[in-house]
């Protein structure tokens, strides 16, 4: 779970803080189906976001049947969808310099090639369909670069949803993300969740809720389930055999418990402040996973208890978070969370997925009295640092400055927030709004 982020579809643009305010949009009605929205029938712009994710505890142990906790990040991917004035289907991904458009008539070829039959039960793209997508897009077989995978994912979801539910009108889609690429933070899943939500809404397969101004707007549970199913198909196209955790976090937000293939949302989860640090050290998830398996096979009496202990850490963390959410002995429970972070980081080093860059992160934040661990596959990548509610702003800023001096990227953010949501343009941070709505991004 979450250890196979591979090639992702969006990359970081700028690290501005995003206000978690979510505003409204009006529900549009189709003439023949009043409960459904069709973007081509009104001159409206809709903005959708989906969060990234971190693994709080359980990375690598989860591969061996142990519990892992995955939680949403308040770093997000944003998608703007609106009618296209010149009757085209446009895809703009300014993070990775992709700006493409097609005539809807040309895309009808793909709709006949990609027949999934049932919008409620999407199927995985087969090899013949993938070959058709590549041929149509002019992408050579074997190309796995970010731009190629992003385009293929869009074309598949557009064509499959159109075929299943009816022709999607001409539209203009722009996607921009705060999430760094290939860092294990679920950027590809956030992209897929945003696309699924936008295209299902554009086709009329799901409704759009009617929010009050400046309130968060979300779909109902059945519609979220459908968004998640289609986002999972996009993740399969990108990663081959993902666990489904990343897209589930992007859809529902909060925290999910993953164990033996079963994903369970946790109902009582506090919103925690963290520093998220990207060491920018690249690594191979496949190699790291294989290394842990090799250690387990060679030294089962030593490594198995370590994995059992990581499992116990995940379960204890779940219990402590529920206690914090209920307001019981918050200070005491934060101390326990810090101890769990320290112990788990040591365990991850023992099983061979640490890295000097992550050791420096832990050592540096410890000088400020803070506690850190890797998140994701390890071997570089990202780490998280827990911030108590009373951690002083000056200490946070000093930590961030020192980490940035090492060449790391660092954000202060929160975990445990909402999943895929609708926004109105005026609710967004001005920098985000400008990136999404400045026409220069669409040229």
Automatic annotation (TrEMBL):
GO cellular component, one term: cytosol
Source organism of the structure: Scyliorhinus torazame
NCBIfam families per the UniProt record, alphabetical: mevalon_kin (TIGR00549)
Pfam families linked: GHMP_kinases_C, GHMP_kinases_N
Gene3D superfamilies named in the record: 3.30.230.10, GHMP kinase, C-terminal domain (3.30.70.890)
Family affiliation: Belongs to the GHMP kinase family. Mevalonate kinase subfamily.
SUPFAM superfamilies: GHMP Kinase, C-terminal domain, Ribosomal protein S5 domain 2-like
Highest classification ranks of the organism: Eukaryota, Metazoa, Chordata, Craniata, Vertebrata
E.C. number(s) listed in UniProt: 2.7.1.36
Cited function: Catalyzes the phosphorylation of mevalonate to mevalonate 5-phosphate, a key step in isoprenoid and cholesterol biosynthesis.
Protein name, as recorded: Mevalonate kinase
């Amino acid at each position: 779970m979450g250890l196979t982020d591979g090639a992702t579809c969006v990359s970081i643009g700028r690290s501005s803080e995003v206000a978690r305010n979510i505003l409204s949009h009006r529900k549009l009605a189709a003439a023949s189906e009043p409960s459904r929205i069709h973007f081509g029938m009104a001159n409206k712009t809709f903005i959708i976001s989906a969060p990234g994710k971190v693994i709080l505890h359980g990375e690598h142990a989860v591969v061996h049947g142990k519990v892992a906790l995955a939680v949403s990040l308040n770093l997000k991917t944003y998608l703007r969808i609106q009618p296209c004035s010149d009757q085209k289907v446009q895809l703009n991904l300014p993070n990775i310099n992709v700006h493409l458009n097609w005539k809807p008539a040309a895309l009808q070829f793909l709709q006949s090639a990609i027949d999934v039959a049932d919008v409620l039960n999407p199927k995985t793209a087969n090899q013949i369909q993938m070959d058709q997508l590549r041929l149509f897009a002019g992408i050579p077989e074997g190309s796995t670069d970010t731009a190629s995978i992003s385009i293929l994912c869009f074309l598949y979801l557009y064509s499959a949803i159109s075929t299943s539910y009816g022709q999607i009108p001409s539209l203009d889609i722009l996607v921009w993300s705060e999430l760094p690429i290939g860092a294990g933070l679920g950027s590809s899943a956030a992209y897929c969740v945003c696309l699924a939500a936008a295209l299902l809404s554009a086709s009329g397969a799901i409704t759009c809720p009617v929010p009050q101004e400046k309130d968060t707007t979300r779909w109902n549970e059945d519609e979220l389930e459908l968004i998640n199913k289609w986002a999972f198909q996009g993740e399969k196209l990108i990663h081959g055999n993902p666990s489904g955790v990343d897209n589930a976090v992007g859809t529902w937000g909060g925290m999910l418990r993953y164990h033996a293939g079963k994903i369970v949302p946790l109902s009582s989860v506090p919103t925690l402040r963290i520093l998220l640090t990207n060491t920018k050290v690249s690594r191979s998830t496949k190699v790291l996973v294989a290394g842990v398996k090799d250690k387990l096979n060679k030294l089962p009496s030593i490594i198995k208890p370590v994995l059992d202990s990581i499992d116990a850490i995940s379960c204890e963390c779940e219990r402590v978070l529920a206690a914090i959410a209920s307001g019981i002995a918050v200070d005491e429970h934060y101390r326990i969370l810090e101890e769990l972070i320290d112990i788990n980081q040591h365990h991850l080093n023992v099983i061979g997925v640490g890295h000097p860059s992550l050791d420096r992160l832990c050592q540096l934040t410890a000088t400020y009295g803070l506690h850190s661990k890797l998140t994701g596959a390890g071997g570089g990548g990202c780490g998280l640092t827990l911030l108590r509610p009373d951690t002083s702003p000056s200490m946070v800023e000093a930590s961030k400055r020192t980490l940035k001096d090492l060449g790391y990227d660092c954000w202060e953010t929160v975990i445990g927030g909402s999943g895929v949501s609708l926004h109105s343009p005026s609710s967004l941070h001005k920098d985000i709004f400008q990136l999404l709505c400045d026409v220069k991004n669409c040229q």
